[in-house]
Amino acid sequence: MRYEKGRKDESRRRIVEAAAARFRGDGIAASGVAAIMSDAGLTNGALYPHFQSKAELVRESVGTALAEQSRQLQETLASGGPEAAIDTYLSAAHRDNPGTGCTLAALLPELARQPPEARSFYAERLSAMVDRIAAALPPQTPNAQGIALAVQATLVGALQLARAVEGTELSDRILAAAADAARALVAPHQ
After folding, report:
1. Residue ranges of the HTH tetR-type domain (predicted)?
2. pLDDT tens column, 128-150
3. Which of 3, 58, 70, 170 is the most buried (most CB within 10 A)?
4. How many CB atoms lie within 10 A of CB 28?
5. Considering the chain, what is the average pLDDT of its residues?
6. 177 and 159 Cβ atoms separated by less than 8 Å
């Protein structure tokens, strides 16, 4: 049986998207291949023509999710600047939907346990996001990279904390306090 052109690419894209959402929502360790493939609308056996292992799928799906996140960050920064990016990131909607949200905030503890070459790859993606934030600061901002890194760390850490106590008043307070802190980091340079 012959399949139409592009079917293999479409299947791979569906697998990567399903894996990224499943990993962000449930974690890497808790996400089995069967669930991912079911989410993609494919059989378990359809994974192996595309990926040799779950580890390979993790790397590609997380990398793809981080690239998409970086693209979305660029759009938000271009349309509303750093404050818009802070408000979008530290929103209740983002907190309440980890399956479609920030890959780093959803997976940070698991990413830290990945092999060194995978962590290096994720570090490159993180650096690209920090570079985007730094580039959105006004020219001549002293230590723009340091400010951008502090903003990124504040956002990711706050989102993780807010998710850990989701459903409580404390969760909302964490988001608000972190937004104020991140705005204070960029405010003197606006």
Report:
1. 9-69
2. 999 999 999 988 899 999 999 99
3. 58
4. 22
5. 91
6. no
